[in-house]
Specification:
Arc Repressor Mutant, subunit A, rod-shaped, mainly alpha, disordered N terminus, 413 residues, Globin-like, Alpha-Beta Plaits, 3 domains
């Protein structure tokens, strides 16, 4: 800890010594700059305007040191001014560590060149202690500048992130949205999935810290993430996995790839939108995920998380036109393309309550023929008519097909 210097100690420096210090400020600033170039190889590679900014801060610091010797109570204000007059983007171009290294070099030059200007031994001791104390104040001032810059950057990032998430949700896939995401370090060509659910309860904690935990969790999963809280819903934009995933965060065999992120949501369903090829197309994933979230109460036993495509019947009933279209495209269209008998057999089987023998009698075919046709239905649609959940999806798809084109969809006999 530095020895305590009283106000009277500092004012013991004579006017003649203060005058010598004032005359030496120009040479002292130049010596600091030269020492920085010699001690830090990266400093010489800075642009001229950046070096000029450092020189300006150094000159102001030297002048403030001399002024402080006459006004020691003004230490904090004077040291803060040394950084306030710097170019606005200097803190963004130099890291905190680089700034600390420069402050250390400047302090060493001060220690070497200022005390010899003292008139006697007492003044020499006072100047040595003053340099040490002033160097500490300069270091604290630098840390304050960088802390304020970090807070400002964090607030700016949060606003940009909210704008990107809101733009994806609203479907504003323009160049401005991609540019904002790129400014946040997002890869605009990376594949994206959108997750929606309820936000976690703060429980008296900081909401920003909770969202920060979600970001850190996604990073451990090898994913980039953009987070947005929109009222009663939490929206995540996730890229496909990249890099190494921590062992504790790897999904269990058979689990959903994003299952470990479910704990970051609040209670209720969590819906995963389909994979979008890039950020510009992510609004489709967001649209389906939000439609699934609205329809999720219709399937209380749904897994958590659940894919939006697994909620097609509920979405169709809730009036989602894209769900109706997907049902027709994924079920009715391939069955029609394979021949009308598959579609007719599926309709007869479902309308008959899933009774194989009854279906065969209604179609005047052998039961093995019905089995073969139902197996083909499963191969073409990925849904088994004998599974209760798949049967609901298939039956809803038949209804959607009939409503879309009553004349083209055969009805059971």
């Amino acid at each position: 800890m530095l020895p305590h210097m009283t106000l009277s100690d500092v004012r013991a420096v004579s006017a003649a010594t203060l005058r010598r210090l004032e005359l030496a400020t120009g040479d002292l600033a130049a010596a600091c700059l030269s020492a920085m170039e010699d001690g830090q190889p990266w400093f010489a590679r800075l642009h001229a305007d950046q070096r000029a900014g450092v020189l300006l801060v150094t000159q102001t610091g030297v002048s403030n040191f001399v002024a402080w010797l006459g006004e020691p109570d003004e230490t904090i204000r004077l040291t803060a001014e040394a950084f306030r007059i710097a170019p606005r983007d200097l803190a963004r171009r130099l890291s905190l560590r680089q700034t600390v290294d420069l402050v250390r070099i400047a302090t060493e030059v001060f220690e070497e060149r200022l005390p010899p200007l003292a008139a006697d031994e007492a003044e020499y001791r006072i100047l040595v202690e003053a340099v040490l104390r002033f160097g500490r104040e300069i270091a604290f001032a630098a840390a304050t500048v960088y802390a304020n810059a970090a807070e400002t950057r964090g607030a700016w990032d949060a606003r940009q992130e909210a704008l990107v998430v809101d733009g994806v949700v609203r479907g504003d896939a323009d160049d401005a949205l991609v540019s904002r995401a790129a400014a946040l370090g997002w890869d605009p060509v990376a594949a994206v999935r959108v997750l929606v659910g309820s936000p976690p309860a703060a429980d008296g904690g900081d909401a920003a810290e909770i969202l920060g935990g979600i970001r850190r969790h996604a990073t451990r999963l090898g994913r980039s993430v953009l987070v947005g809280v929109q009222g009663s819903r939490l929206v995540l934009l996730l890229t496909e996995p990249r890099g190494r995933i921590a062992p504790d965060d790897r999904p269990r065999e058979g689990a959903h790839p994003v299952a470990s992120l479910v704990a970051d949501f609040g209670p209720g369903p969590v819906v995963v939108g389909p994979r979008a090829p890039n950020l510009a197309a992510a609004h489709v994933s967001a649209r389906d995920a939000l439609a699934g979230l609205r329809a999720a109460p219709g399937w209380p036993a749904a897994p958590r998380p659940v894919d939006a495509e697994d909620l097609l019947p509920e979405r169709a009933v809730s009036g989602d036109p894209s769900a109706l279209r997907l049902l027709v495209e994924s079920v009715v269209a391939p069955l029609e393309a394979a021949g009308g008998e598959l579609l007719r057999t599926l309709a007869a089987y479902l309308e008959g309550g899933g009774a194989l023998e009854a279906c065969a009698r209604a179609l005047f075919v052998h039961p093995n023929t019905v089995r073969y046709r139902l197996r083909r239905v499963s191969e073409l649609t990925g849904r088994s008519p004998s599974d209760p959940r798949d049967a609901l999806v298939l039956r809803t798809a038949l209804l959607a097909g009939r409503l879309a084109d009553p004349a083209s969809t055969p009805t059971p006999p």
